[in-house]
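so i finally got all the pieces together for this one. its two components total, 497 residues if u count the protein bits. some of the lines might not be protein, just check the labels. i wanna see the whole assembly predicted at once instead of chain by chain like last time, that was a mess tbh
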Amino acid sequence: MSTFGFFCDTSACSGCKTCQVACKDKNNLEPGIRFRRVYEVAGANWNKTEEGAWEHDIVAYNLSIGCNHCEDPACVKACPTKAMHAESDGMILVDSKICIGCRYCEWACPYGSPQYNEQKGIMQKCDFCRDYILEGKQPACVASCPMRALEFGQIGQLIEKHGDNRTIYPMPDPITKPALFIRKHPGARFARKLNASIINREEVRNEK
Amino acid sequence: MKSSEWPLVIFTLAMQLSVGIMLIYDLFILFPLYRSRVALPMKYHWILLIALLAAIIGVIFSFLHLGNPANAPRSLSNIGTSWLSREISGVLIYSSLLLVTTILHFVMPSAGRSLKWLIDITAVAGIILIFIMSRIYMIPARPTWNTFFTPLGFYMAAIVMGASLLLLFQINQGSWASQKSLAVLTISIPVIQLALLPVYMSWLSQSGIASGQGLTILLQNHMIAFYLRLILYLLAIAFGFWAFFSIRSDTTQNRLLFTPALLAWAAILAAQIIDRLLFYAQNISPDGF
């Protein structure tokens, strides 16, 4: 079971993507590979009022996701070599020395977290900036967030502080028990009704 | 579709062709001959060699899919939970059985009849392998694949590719009943595939955002491939009927069957390649994640 987790305050996230850039910088990632991705969710509609006028509804918010280090990780179950594995502290890591680059973990993960490095022929992913944590520092994404929308910590403490909500529209059902806790943007309750969707798919998906 | 998935298209089709050949050979050619106690014609041994060749091609292309094939021997490490690990085990077991069967048939041609049990086991291993192959794709994170249409499609591909290819082998020496049976399979599977298409599309349209995107990919992004597949199914059915009505009771003189059987097999193979390309094109994560 995962010990650590992330918290994302979608009501505070401005979508500046500093977390994404800090992660790429810290991990020296190739173009196209994003351990952390900022999803832009937006939707809108026009409604006719009783007086016959037209008014618009609109919803827009951002969701920053790295690896959720799930308690029931689909990637670990799928990996044929056990390169993708759970450490004793619950962190989900990939052992690049035994990864075969089959990309099955990429298919199995509902959050698109494992990223394929075409040059190396292996999978890579967020490791909570393990080296930073061992030094007593925060992960690069959390430390860089100018809005303080991201937090990292012990799961119990995060739940106590922010509650145990692990999803927001349009995230998939949390069947893998992600260690990601979310404060919902106020507009999220209208998102389904407004057919909101991720509007920066081309940006966040690693199509290589 | 990602270029990295071409090896998977060839791997899955080659393995399914191999299994289809073994299954159809066992049920529709060997079984009637076995019951009638007629000697096995030597040319049927070549059927095993073609099935083995298809399996070898499949195995080679499965390596091309890997980013780091040097670690491939480790891929059997997680049989407990990984369907991919199970698939690789299944491919090894099936291919090994097929290799042994083929070698024994060529080394001891007169013992062909007594080795039917080995072909039975190989065919059963193939049926299990196709089930495992389909389970790889039936994961919640890929909603367009996570449906019974996936195993159904894989089994139908195996049967129709095997039946249409073996119809070619039946031209001179096959029994009338075998020829008719294989021609019926060559016609009926594309008919079922055509009939299931609107059912599948209806399911896609009603199964959430990601599956709806699957429909968009079919009808907009790959429209030409989608309609080309329909045309090829219709051609396969037409050539299948032509073959069916070309079968004569004196099957030893039956050369009329060659052209329609060849055309039907070519149309079916092309349709299955496009079908599999469209399958991988629908590799969509839930809600864009």
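Chain A has one domain: 4-204.
Chain A has a mean pLDDT of 94.
anyway lmk what u think
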